Amino acid sequence: MVINKKILVGVLLALLVAGGAAYKYLRPAETGITATGTIEVTRADVMPKVNGYLTGLQLKAGDAVEAQQKVAKITRADLEAQVVRDEAALAKAAAQLRDLEAGPRSQERQELSALLDSARSTYEKARQDYERYQSLYQAGAISLQQLDTARSNMEVAYGSMTAANQRLSLGNEGNRPEAIEAQRLELERSKAVLAASRVLLEDTVVISPINGLILSKNFENGEYVNPGAAILTVGDMNDCWVKIYVSSTQLGLIAVGQEAKVKVDSFPGRVFRGEIKEISQNAEFTPRQSITQSERANLVFAVKVQLDNAEGILKPGMPADVVLK
C-alpha cells in the first residue's frame, strides 16, 4: 500500500512537469512590441513662498490632499505687524482726504470772521488815533516821533486786517484742488502698499498645487525653511503612466492613441489597459539598463503609455511590462 502511494505521487509530479512544459511551448505568444518600464505619476513639490519657521504641518506620507488645500503655515510676526502698520496708514490717509474735501468747519469760519472783525476794529482805532495825532502835531502839542508812532501803529493794524480778510476768504473757498488731488493719490498709494503687505502675509500659508497622495515628507514643524524648499512631495495617482523606449526601427509601428496591454508584477494574472499619450520627437541612446551592448548602441524614442488608475492600486516605482499591439 505504501509503494502504491509513492508511485502515485511520482506519476502526479511527472504529469505536472509535463503539463507545465506543454503550456510553455504551446501557449499563444504575445504579439507586438514589448518593453519594460516603471509606473510613474505626476509629482509636485509643496513649497513655501517666504522663509520662516514651519508650523501646522499635520500630514504624513500616504495622506490624501486636494488642490489649494492648506497644508502648513510659515510663522512671520513681522509680516503681521507690517499689515497692521499699513492698515493704520491707509486709515490716516483716508481721514486726511475727507478733511480736505470737507473744507473748514462752520465754527472755523465763524472764528475767522471774528478775527477779521477784531482786526478791522483795531485798524479803525489806529486810523482815528493817527488822524487825531496829525491835528495835535499841527497844533504843536506832540512831537514828530509821536506822530510817526501813531502812523506805524495804523499801518500794522491795516496789515493785520488785510491778513485776516485773506484767511477768511481762503476758508470760504475751501482747500485747493491740487492739495485734494495730492491727498487722493496718497490714499491710492497707501492702498497699494497695504495690498502688497497682505499678499506677503497670505504667502505664509502653504498650499498643495495638485490633488493626490503625499509621497514624501521632508520637513517637520519648528524647522526653518527657505522659499522653494520642498516640504512635501505630492503625486497625482490619477495621472499614471509607464515610460518605455521603442527602437527607431519600430517607431513607424506605433502612434498616439494606440492601445497597449500592461502587466504589473504586483498583480500577476491581471492586465491593465493602456494608451499611448506621447511619443518623443527626439532620439536618444538606449538607457544603460539594456542587456546587450548592441541594444545600447541603438537609437530609441521615449514613449509615454497612460494607464487607468481609478482604483488607485498602481504605485510609483512598480515595474511593468508593456505590449503595444
TrEMBL record:
Boundaries of every YbhG-like alpha-helical hairpin domain copy: 77-201
Alphabetical keyword list: Coiled coil
Domain of life: Bacteria
Limits of the CusB-like beta-barrel domain: 241-324
Ranges in a coiled coil: 76-136
Record-linked Pfam families: Beta-barrel_RND_2, HH_YBHG
InterPro entries referenced in this protein's UniProt entry, alphabetically: Beta-barrel_RND_2 (IPR058792), HH_YbhG-like (IPR059052), UPF0194_transport (IPR050465)
Localisation: Cell envelope
PANTHER family per UniProt: BLL5650 PROTEIN, EFFLUX SYSTEM COMPONENT YKNX-RELATED
Name this protein carries in UniProt: Multidrug export protein EmrA
Native organism: Sporomusa silvacetica DSM 10669
